[in-house]
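Lab meeting, item 3. Inverse folding demo.
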């Protein structure tokens, strides 16, 4: 089978969740496709680095630069001229005019729950693109059971066309124990241990105003580190941070090379997000041996398993008590760290690729 894949998101320099998903999944699919006798056509909107993916006879790069509307004009034209047996988009949208067999990953439906967290044009596109993918695709991959249930309940899609395929974790991510490396990263981002860490986009959906208030009420001597790029409507969060200038740090985007050390040096990882389709940062913290506090909503309990301290994200007082307990209860900390290592082993890109390719070959019932 010839499988065409939109690889345009995989070349993004600063990869966040969906870009990382596209990159690692394609990377893992290449050797598996070779084993099963498939051909992969990878479509790019810019020339990729020559070492982006493993070299393999089963892979063809198709670079089709185009300044605007690349997906719906240029990619669509390429698919019309030379249609694959199946087109798959892991992190974007199926071209509007393409009617051939297709599959798409839908990562979350957060816009249903928090429409105010998006600019109007972005919200309109999210609504359209998700519904378009849901109706046009022969098969859908959902990052979690929670996302699958949202697609059925909120978008009216048939559960029979949706398969749950958990993403994997970066295999290079490991705990850092070298004190010199830990210190160098902390100095680079102006951190003073002990610190509590949040690492994701700074935006309202992440529930950071409540987190800051819970932290302020906890009386803990730890620094609170809110790491990540600022997103849409971040201003109320930044205003709340300004009320605690001495104890809260905003280091901005974290280089991939520094992520493991930043996580490993934290006393705890905090992820009280109001909605997540999956939740990579939670698992990345578990891989690095850090005890995790997370919200008890959306996909987070499903992904965290029994390896996180779960809390109602709308209850600031409960969050304060959970922060204190997570820092002070050594037995709990040890138990969560051990369970975190075990839980994270469930999520490998090899397993993701196997389940994804099974679905692309035979549908969600495979």
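The presenter then showed the designed sequence:
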């Amino acid at each position: 089978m010839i499988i065409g894949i939109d690889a345009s998101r995989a070349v993004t320099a600063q990869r966040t969740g969906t870009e990382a998903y596209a990159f690692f999944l394609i990377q893992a699919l290449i050797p598996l496709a070779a084993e099963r006798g498939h051909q992969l056509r990878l479509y790019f909107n810019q020339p990729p680095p020559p070492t982006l993916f493993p070299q393999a006879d089963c892979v063809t790069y198709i670079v089709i630069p185009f300044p605007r509307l690349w997906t719906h004009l240029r990619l669509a034209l390429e698919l019309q001229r030379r249609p694959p047996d199946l087109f798959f988009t892991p992190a974007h949208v199926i071209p509007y005019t393409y009617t051939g067999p297709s599959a798409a990953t839908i990562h979350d439906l957060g816009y249903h729950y928090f429409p105010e967290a998006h600019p109007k044009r972005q919200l309109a596109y999210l609504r359209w693109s998700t519904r378009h993918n849901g109706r046009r695709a022969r098969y859908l991959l959902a990052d979690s059971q929670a996302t699958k249930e949202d697609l059925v309940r909120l978008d009216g899609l048939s559960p029979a066309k949706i398969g749950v395929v958990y993403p994997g974790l970066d295999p290079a991510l490991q705990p850092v124990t070298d004190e010199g490396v830990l210190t160098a990263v902390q100095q680079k981002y102006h951190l003073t241990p002990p610190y509590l860490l949040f690492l994701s986009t700074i935006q309202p959906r992440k529930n950071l105003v409540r987190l800051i208030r819970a932290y302020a009420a906890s009386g803990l001597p730890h620094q609170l580190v809110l790491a990540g790029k600022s997103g849409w409507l971040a201003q109320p969060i930044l205003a709340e941070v300004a009320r605690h200038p001495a104890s809260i740090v905003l280091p901005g985007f974290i280089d991939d090379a520094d992520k493991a050390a930043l996580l490993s040096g934290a006393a705890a990882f905090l992820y009280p997000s109001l909605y997540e389709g999956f939740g990579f940062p939670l698992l990345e913290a578990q891989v690095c041996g850090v005890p995790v506090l997370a919200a008890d909503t959306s996909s987070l309990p499903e992904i965290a398993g029994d390896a996180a301290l779960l809390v109602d994200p709308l209850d600031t007082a409960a969050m304060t008590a959970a922060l204190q307990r997570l820092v002070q209860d050594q037995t709990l900390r040890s138990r969560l760290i051990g369970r975190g290592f075990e839980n994270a082993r469930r999520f490998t890109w090899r397993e993701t690729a196997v389940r994804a390719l099974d679905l692309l070959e035979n549908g969600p019932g495979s």
